[in-house]
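Intended use. Records like the one below are meant for learning the mapping from a protein sequence to its folded structure. Do not use them to infer anything beyond what is encoded.
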Amino acid sequence: MYTMNSIPSKNWVDTHFHVFNAGEAVAGARYVPQYTAALQDWMALAQGVGVTRGVCVQPSFLGVDNHLMLQALKAHPEALRGVAVLAADTPADELNALHTAGVRGIRLNLAGVSHDVAAWTRADRLWRTLHELGWHLEVHTDQGALPEVLRQLPSDMPLVVDHMAKPIAARAMDVSIAALVQRAQHTATYVKLSGAYRLGGVDAARLAHLWLHELGPAALLWGSDWPCTNHEHLATYDVLFAALSAWVGPQHLDDVLSHNPQRLYWDVPVGA
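Structure written out for the chain above:
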């Protein structure tokens, strides 16, 4: 059996992987997995490249039933953190219980669905509790739709954007890139270098280089997106991992893989 401490640790973190069971999805889900993505399988792959910690992100097709993600956190409470999908009216006591379990963020996965998030705009009590807990908001949008979503959400909430923010083009003037650069001037903002195959043809290496230039290495995270739903033929973990070094250079690997995620998910101070 694998444990998260079976090889020498560099405290490298995969900030985006999923666990789920074959055939399980909420009613009406656009995707129903035909296979199981087991925690032990991810752990074996991650350890093979020196990744010793992870962030289990709730997939959209499981809705607000976070029990598999929570089971993973319970099995490895020191090595894993979670990002949950929740309703806008989730009560404070439930959020506190999730925090105790290791959850550190809430995810809005809007890819392929309406980007009207009016219910979240009005969720003042929820945002207040998330601030008190030190959580962040994680957002996944359709390509080019990020500014529309950000305008509807609190501007002071720490933000993580999935899959390189999915801009229309890898140019500084792109509206999604410009919106995040502006937000980062006053609010903690992170971009996940993940999901290169979800970019609609935008060159991933060029986009990663641009994010490094525009936001700096302290704002970047890496996620495998394992098991790469709808793109499983690309789910070769060591290849996904190797791309990061080519994107940001070996001199920034510890920032992206260790310092940044440990600060965000484990509250480890810079330089600790």
